[in-house]
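Quick one, probably user error.
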């Protein structure tokens, strides 16, 4: 099992802790606010009060031994930057840092953050995608031109048809990885999988192709 440390228990950091705990993961939660830490005593594996800018504190909890360290102090740029730097210097394998701005993201990258998250910017892009492509319910970017997306089968023309008949890959350069049927069952997207109106399909492909497909099905 992987080990996780989350530093900063605001809305973002707190959500990460809760999500990891719900999935049975071991997670250390750190914040300098005692009242906030108390809220996570029964959620995290361990919740402690501490100033993440204190190198001795980070060293005492063995921050370098965690598989993932999430620095969720995006609103305090100096604290976030120093905490990220200290975590890397103490041997943290993978540091995921929250940035409030693109400039902060660049600074975090320079001090060693392995992954940088911009929740507000990401949420804005997701909303834009939903507004433009209303049939895309969830998605995430795999690279600058590839994406994974969830979309709903709406077209009566696809009712009862096999995935192989529609030829997603050859016509659209898209792979259907999974199908969630209206009865709640799921199956891997094989060629003989039969689609029905109301099913959700999970696809991987180039962004433009996925966007076009979402308006066709």
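Nope, works fine. Designed sequence:
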């Amino acid at each position: 099992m992987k080990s996780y440390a989350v530093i900063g228990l605001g809305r973002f950091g707190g959500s990460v802790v809760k999500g990891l705990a719900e999935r049975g993961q071991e997670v250390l939660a750190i914040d300098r606010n005692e009242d906030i830490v108390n809220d996570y005593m029964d959620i995290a594996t361990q919740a402690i009060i501490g100033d993440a800018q204190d190198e001795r504190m980070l060293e005492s909890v063995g921050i370098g031994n965690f598989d993932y360290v999430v620095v969720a102090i995006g609103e305090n740029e100096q604290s976030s930057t120093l905490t990220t730097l200290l975590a890397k210097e103490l041997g943290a394998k993978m540091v995921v840092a929250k940035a409030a701005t693109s400039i902060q993201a660049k600074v975090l990258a320079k001090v060693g953050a392995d992954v940088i998250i911009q929740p507000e910017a990401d949420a804005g892009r997701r909303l834009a995608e939903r507004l433009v492509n209303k049939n895309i319910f969830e998605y995430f970017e795999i690279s600058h031109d590839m994406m994974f997306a969830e979309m709903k089968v709406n077209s009566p023309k696809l009712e009862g048809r096999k995935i192989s008949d529609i030829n997603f890959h050859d016509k659209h350069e898209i792979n259907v990885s999974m199908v969630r049927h209206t009865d709640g069952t799921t199956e891997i997207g094989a060629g003989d999988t039969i689609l029905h109106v109301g099913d959700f399909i999970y696809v991987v492909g180039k962004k433009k192709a996925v966007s076009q497909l979402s308006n066709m099905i």
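The two ends are 40 Å apart (CA to CA).
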